[in-house]
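thought: user wants a sequence for this fold. calling inverse folding tool.
action: design(structure=
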């Protein structure tokens, strides 16, 4: 059966026309899905009984089941969702003073193999569809009874390796008749899929682009991130400069600090030189220890010194607040789990 959440508004209008219905019915369905956030076609009470029966014969709502829900001492909640095909994904809800942020997954498994990420070594299964990406947000909102204000594509998977589905999901999330979450409240992270950075610059979206950088030279970055063997730092930075020139938007560079690896003063100096003159922000991440991982967290003194050096030399840098580490929900700790 077809998932109603897979369609943007224009596509849904065409679906309704194919059923012999008026296209304005699509707007009513969108309202039920994204404003009322109902879970059953029968609850679409301004549709005729005959139309509801038609819809039930062809379409599903794709409601994820919560297999496990863990709550951190800091209020972070990690969900394990059944995606209804024998697989499961993790999604994280984080509490901030400015609202509730959800970290969504874009794939079941990941191909990138970053050595500091818990998804490393776990077989890639498939891309999530646009509807499955959106359903993570809806399922969490339905569970907590509150609206999500911010979305980060930083869960399991590489968003730019699932580019079309992620872009479609973002446009439905952003649409005034969809979830109506402002593009400036959506952040998309990539490990550095260079061709897609050029594509994203042409999307005319106001989302924040986050680049997982983590090192300042090819040798060190390739050891941490195999994607660097395909797209070198020089090519990545060129693409980022093109993105800034086209969009006039600031890029957020993610930099995970690992003890005795990329956290010393020489690394800080090299990072200043690499990013000099760019419209950017550096988000310093105290790296999280993962099972069988060789990288360990830098000490607080080094992290603070690293941040201060960047700020003193014209690169705006902040240290990411660590949330959910006690339930393995912090940065780099999510992993695909199979259903038992």
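)
observation: tool returned 340 residues.
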């Amino acid at each position: 059966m077809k998932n109603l959440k897979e369609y943007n508004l224009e596509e849904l209008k065409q679906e309704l026309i194919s059923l012999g219905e008026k296209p304005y019915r699509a707007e009513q369905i969108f309202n039920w899905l994204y404003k009322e956030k109902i879970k059953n076609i029968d609850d679409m009470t301004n549709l005729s009984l005959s139309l509801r029966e038609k819809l039930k014969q062809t379409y599903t709502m794709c409601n994820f089941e919560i297999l496990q829900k863990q709550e951190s001492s800091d209020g972070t909640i990690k969900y394990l969702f059944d995606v209804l095909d024998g697989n499961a994904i993790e999604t994280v809800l984080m509490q901030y003073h400015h609202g509730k942020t959800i970290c969504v997954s874009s794939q079941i498994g990941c191909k990138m193999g970053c050595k500091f990420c818990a998804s490393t070594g776990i077989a890639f299964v498939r891309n999530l569809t646009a509807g499955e990406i959106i359903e993570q947000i809806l399922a969490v909102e339905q569970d907590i009874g509150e609206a999500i204000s911010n979305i980060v594509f930083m869960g399991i998977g590489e968003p730019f390796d699932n580019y079309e589905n992620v872009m479609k999901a973002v446009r439905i999330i952003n649409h005034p008749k969809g979830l109506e979450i402002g593009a400036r409240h959506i952040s998309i992270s990539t490990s550095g899929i260079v061709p897609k950075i050029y594509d994203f610059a042409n999307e005319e979206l106001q989302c924040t682009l986050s680049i997982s950088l983590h090192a300042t030279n090819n040798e060190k970055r390739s050891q941490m991130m195999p994607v660097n063997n395909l797209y070198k730092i020089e090519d990545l930075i060129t693409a980022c400069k093109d993105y800034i020139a086209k969009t006039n938007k600031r890029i957020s560079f993610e930099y995970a600090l690992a003890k005795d690896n990329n956290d010393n003063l020489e690394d800080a100096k090299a990072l200043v030189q690499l990013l000099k003159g760019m419209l950017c922000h550096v988000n310093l991440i105290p790296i999280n220890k993962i099972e069988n991982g060789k990288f360990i967290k830098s000490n607080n003194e080094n992290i603070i010194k690293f941040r201060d050096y960047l700020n003193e030399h014209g690169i705006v840098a902040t240290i990411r607040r660590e949330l959910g580490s006690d339930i393995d929900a912090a940065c780099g700790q999510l992993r695909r789990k199979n259903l038992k």
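thought: summarizing for user.
answer: Here is the designed sequence. The mean pLDDT is 92.
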